[in-house]
């Protein structure tokens, strides 16, 4: 009698939101008060942590503090719109990134939380 072991790998199941709009408005700070308070009291730390979570260099947002239009905030916002399929235009991104930078980062943080794609292994067992 032969011992035959069959191992089947579980396949990832991904559930995602297919909305083409931001999940929250630019001024919806009450949706996540602790995050917005953190951003208000330590903006540089907040942006660096969120950039790292988004997959960018940890210190990249520190380059935003030179110049009128914040290029890093704007580029990450445009990238996030592209990644999540959110409708919008660069003119609006430029305006909100320039005049509402803190609110933009809070909105992007809420969006990353809302659209965080967790991979769930269905049928996985501990061996």
Helix content: 40-55%
How would the global form be characterised?
Answer: elongated
Poorly predicted ranges: 11-17
What's the main sheet like? 2 strands, antiparallel
Oligomerization: single chain
Mean pLDDT: 83
What secondary-structure arrangement, pairings included, does this model have?
Blueprint: E1 12-13, H1 33-41, H2 43-54, H3 71-84, H4 90-99, H5 101-114, E2 120-121
Antiparallel strand pairs: 1-2
Helix pairs in contact: 1-2, 1-5, 2-5, 3-4, 4-5
InterPro entries: PLAC_motif_containing (IPR006461)
Family: Belongs to the cornifelin family.
Protein name: Cornifelin homolog B-like
Could you explain how this protein is built, in words?
Pfam families: PLAC8. This is Cornifelin homolog B-like. The chain has five helices and two strands; from the N terminus they run βαααααβ. It is mainly alpha-helical and 127 residues long. It is elongated and about 75 Å long.
Concise structural overview:
The protein is mainly α and 127 residues long. It has helices spanning 33-41, 43-54, 71-84, 90-99, 101-114, and strands at residues 12-13, 120-121. The longest helix has 14 residues, at 71-84.
List keywords for this structure.
2 strands, 127 residues, 46% helix, two-stranded antiparallel ribbon, 5 helices, Cornifelin homolog B-like, PLAC_motif_containing
